[in-house]
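If you are new to this repository, start here. Below is one unmodified record pulled from the training split, so you can see the exact layout before writing a loader.
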Amino acid sequence: MALGRTSAPSWREMKGAARRPTQGLMCPVSGRGEEGGSGRRPPTPFPAPQLGCVVVGPPLYPAVHRVKRGTAAMVNPVFQKSIKDVDLLYKILDAGLDFPEERVSFHVHDEELASLRHTHILEVICEDFLPKKLTEIRRLTSALSQHAGGATLRLEDFERTLLTMVYSAHHVAQASSHHQRELWAESFVELFKAIKRDLAAK
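And here is the target side for that same chain:
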């Protein structure tokens, strides 16, 4: 599924949030920071989730427990770990991206961007973790609504929700019927609300 140039205002909001400073994390067991005991870690594109919050219920993305990859790094991958990664994702979306479907493979339209090793992480996320069916996305939005007023989303869940929103936005434009377009648009709006709510909580 092809995605061309995007101008969704929500992306600017995402990038604005990425530039806010974040505090370093401390290991809850050892009390040491992630960077040699300094208590600091490199800045993340979005504020870190609160370690003290307890997430109740099934995982937002069950594929995390089903995926089988040869390397441990791909068990629960995260694409955006720095501002540079956020900018790279924006460039990929701006250049054009084919989301994996039944008859379509993951494909980045820009050859130089597609050849980057880091882009492979995005491919794994899109192929193995994102919900593709409307019923799965509606189930996701229902689970996200239960997060309201509770714990903020984990970084990987926030990223996958953002990518699922982009995926839904393209379906709105490509829907073959008015009814399908309304269903996809409703899912897009619910995903946007979840992202905006999570950013406000942080």
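Two things worth knowing about this chain: The radius of gyration is 17 Å. The chain has one domain: 2-201.
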